[in-house]
Every structure is written in structure tokens, then in C-alpha cells.
Fold this sequence. Notes:
mainly alpha, 4 helices, globular
Amino acid sequence: MDYALLVDRLGEQIREKRINRGLTQAQVAQLAGLTRQKVIAVEKGTLSVSMLAFARVLGALDCE
């Protein structure tokens, strides 16, 4: 299984969800308690980003 592809798709879906909710990366970062740079990395599907960061962004977007 290509884990990089899965993480990349997750990042894309997170970005779409953020845009659909009318939020900026800075707003999501503030809600998630992360830096804007970390939100950018999450949306890019960067493999070195922790699952906790992904979870915090998903929580900030009110996703389960």
C-alpha cells in the first residue's frame, strides 16, 4: 500500500474541508493550536507531520 498517497489524499481532503468552511489556514491553525506552517504541511500531506497534528486540524474543522 502506498502510504504517501493516502496521506497526500488526506491532506487534500482537509484543504477542501477548510475552504468549504470558509476558513483560512491561519484561522485553522489558531483553532488547532498549531502554527500556520504546520497546517500547510498537513494540507500538503507531508509524511513527517505527526498524526496528532492531523488530528488537531481535523478537530478544528469539526471532523470525526
